[in-house]
Specification:
The protein is α/β, with parallel strands linked by helices. The protein has 2 domains: about 10-175 and about 260-310, 5'-nuclease (Rossmann fold, 3-Layer(aba) Sandwich), CATH 3.40.50; about 180-260, 5' to 3' exonuclease, C-terminal subdomain (DNA polymerase, domain 1, Orthogonal Bundle), CATH 1.10.150. The protein has 15 helices and 6 strands. It has helices at about 10-15, 20-30, 45-60, 75-80, 95-110, 120-135, 170-175, 185-190, 205-215, 220-225, 235-245, 250-260, 270-275, 280-290, 295-305, and strands at about 15-20, 65-70, 115, 140-145, 160, 165-170. Strands 3-2-1-4-5-6 form a 6-stranded mixed sheet, sandwiched between helices. β5 (about 160) and β6 (about 165-170) form a beta hairpin.
């Protein structure tokens, strides 16, 4: 969904929350590993991430911004709920883990609030910051292509797939998936998510999930009157009833795995979100220590200078 720019006042109020890991992985796979630092370590993912930040800052000139990272595939609280969670993914090689560490150092160098830990995932930090922003009557722009984050959207929020310049607000989510943002968590509980190894109810796909949630509103309402599924005007209603009955525990576990935490204790988060742009002299040494090349460093530092960055592009 692309719409015309709104006023500078509206844009200045927004909080930009970046799902960093997806953009680092994209750069790792799309840029050549022949891009190396002074000791021969790859910096392709770091360079791609730096350039993404530079383009975003130039396009939106954000005043409030945070960057969230995933730190581990196997240590979050969701792995205690289900050890199979994300077990289908391969661990990052050491060359990439190094670049993740340098990406956080890069954020520190240019003054960007950044968060990661082994207990929670990037989505949880983003969810927590969305609610903190909402408590300050401030819309959030979630910079990510991940539909799982749709459960966080309020009427003024949006998800921005930066690479495609594609914006999804709450109305666009409903048009795309057939359910509202408030129903997205229950939708995921029903259909699952193969990317994260969330099982969902075997045999129930998107079409059936939409029919169920359209009729009942929520997963809890379905199970509160499960026999009413038999009366739904859909093909295979009896089969849906049986699947829901037999796999209730799977649906409830899937919902817990998909539920984004919105209550991580964060000290002084609202103040931390206020971006204090660095000077080139303050940031250069720290950026050099990351191994980032001179060209990428220059592009990022130039983007951080406010006088060089008129707002441009589309927004919801």
């Amino acid at each position: 969904m692309k719409q015309a720019n709104q006023t500078v006042k509206t844009m200045d109020r927004r909080v930009y929350l970046i799902d960093a890991s997806v953009y680092i992985f994209r750069a790792w796979f799309s840029l050549p590993d022949s891009m190396t630092d002074s000791v021969g370590r790859p910096i392709n993912a770091l360079t791609g991430f730096s350039d993404m930040l530079a383009r975003l800052i130039r396009a939106r000139s954000p005043r409030r911004i945070a960057v969230a990272f995933d730190e581990s595939l196997t240590s979050s609280f969701r792995n205690r709920i289900d050890p199979a969670y994300k077990a289908n993914r391969e661990s990052a090689p050491e060359e990439l883990k190094h670049q993740f560490r340098m990406a956080r150092q890069l954020c520190d160098a240019v003054g960007l609030y950044n968060l990661a830990c082994e207990e929670f995932e990037a989505d949880d930090y983003i969810g927590t910051l969305v609610l903190i922003a909402r408590a300050h009557d401030t819309p959030a722009i979630i910079v990510s292509p991940d539909k799982d984050l749709a459960q966080l959207l309020g009427p003024e929020d949006a998800i921005w797939d930066f690479a495609k310049d594609d914006w999804l607000d709450d109305a666009a989510i409903t048009a795309k998936f057939g359910v509202s943002p408030e129903q997205m968590l229950d939708y995921q509980a029903l259909v699952g998510d193969t990317v994260d190894n969330i099982p969902g109810i075997a045999g129930i796909g998107p079409k059936a999930a939409v029919a169920l949630l359209s009729a009942f509103g929520s997963l809890d309402a379905i199970y509160a009157d499960l026999d009413a599924v038999l009366s739904l005007p859909v093909r295979g209603a009896r089969r849906l009833h049986r699947l829901l009955d037999e796999q209730r525990d799977v649906a409830e576990r899937s919902r817990e795995l998909a539920r984004i935490v919105t209550s991580i204790p964060l000290d002084d988060a609202w103040a931390q979100l206020q971006w204090r742009r660095p000077t080139a002299s303050d940031a250069t040494d720290a950026l050099t220590d990351t191994g980032l090349g001179r060209g990428a460093m220059t592009r990022l530092l130039e983007a951080c200078q406010p006088d060089l960055n008129p707002r441009s592009g589309s927004s919801p």
